[in-house]
Amino acid sequence: MNTWKLLSAFLKVNVQMALAYRADTVVNILLNIMWLGWELLSLGIIFSNTETIGGWGFGELIALLGVFRLVHTLMIALIWPNTEKFNQSIRDGSMDYTLLQPVNSMFLVTFSRITVWRAWDLILAAVLIVVGVNMSGDTATPLSILAFIVLTISGAIVIYSLWIVLIALTFWFTKFDNNVTILQALLDAGRYPVTVYPVWLRILVTFIIPIAVATTIPLQGLRGELDLGRILMFVAIGVASFLVASQVWKRGLKQYSGASS
Amino acid sequence: MLKVFQRLWQVNWAEQWQYRANLIMYLLYWLVSPIIYLAVWTSIAQSKGSVNGLTANDFVTYYMTLLIVDQITSNIVIHTFAYKVQDGSLSGELVRPIHPMLTNALVNNIAFKGLTIMGFIPVWIVLFFLYKPDFSNVAWSGILLAIPAMLIGFSVGFLLSAAITSLAFWTTRVYSIHEFYYALMLLFSGQFVPLTLMPKIVQEVAQYLPYQLQIYFPIQLILGKLSGAQILHGYTMGVIWLTVSIVVFNWVWRNGVKRYSAVGA
After folding, report:
1. Buried (b) or exposed (e) across A164-178, using 16+ Cβ within 10 A?
2. pTM over 0.95
């Protein structure tokens, strides 16, 4: 109950912040369109030289680009700005005030900054997914769409949990400013199906920094490549990683001693 | 002057060394996309035998050479300089009798490179054993020809980036401008894919732009893929762009400094 109220308050504040810098928002949207153009062009170049990569066709890669953009939006609209604020608050001690508030601190730390204009990226992502799936000629059944949605959510939760663990590490190693860079660096690997990658890279992006769980896997679900057992397994991984992350966060908080004292 | 550079080197090396954890993260960040492209294109080449005449080995050698060339010719001046104009910390450097960009920022970049190369060498060796590329086409003459080409590439790239960074004297949106510049770089430099696989029009235009001087031209020189006429064309372009970038940078810098008024001074 409280959570929703807070979330809408955060959104309101962030909309106001974005409106204060209108011209910047416009420039950012233009740059965003430019990058979309580049992404489509680069896919076009790849597919002017081949019909499939890793068993996936052009349409499927466009859909994958859509799914990738969902994760990318999570990264850029939520993870990046909040991490910046969090690192700052560890350095200057303003984390104390966050902890004093009578709300779950993990929620406060991870949702107080939202780059709102990025919401349009979500629409763009949805368009790419729909267009891509149509182009690929794959038939999406209601059941596979459901699997896709469930897998996308659990994939996002896995990434979110990993993020929590990474920033919680800052409680132990105060000077760990680069806590999310590894996530951001490997994010690019989500643009292409993991089936193209050599084994070591596939293992890295599936199990260690599981970008693929949020990109390739949901799309495999949509294409009906995963049986029920596999889908349930990925959902279980999502739930488990969230539970682990909250535990790590709690342990981390006990380590926190405040920068000012 | 030599003494000035020596002292700047000591300071900047020590400064960069302090941030070595950051450097490792940067290195990782910078390594990922070439390795992804390498994986994508080798998988295509393997399934089809060759792509437009390029075999899997051609792609492996291309991207592994790209890692080296890019390491040498790229620069980070936008990240280490633009904020100084914005927060006013440039003032202290302006009163010194040396050029802030062409001494301090330049040496800082080179110190940064020196350290990242130390981290990069073991990674490259690991990649070498993972992919076992066949570099038998590489000749000493190509490498020797590529060294001045990379120096030109670095100089052109540094001066143009420095000119764009200096736009910070006029606008706070200098990072957006630089992002646009970087997108052009991706398109025309050969960073994404060997330029021969690009659409014809991109290849035509790229020949006359400064971007390929930083990536594609040195790579092809090292790999021994260019004819005499192409080498001559590349070097001519290099000299022209070097001249243009010196003029442009000087002009932007001189006018920018005139506009500069520090915050809180």
Report:
1. bbbbbebbeeeeebb
2. no
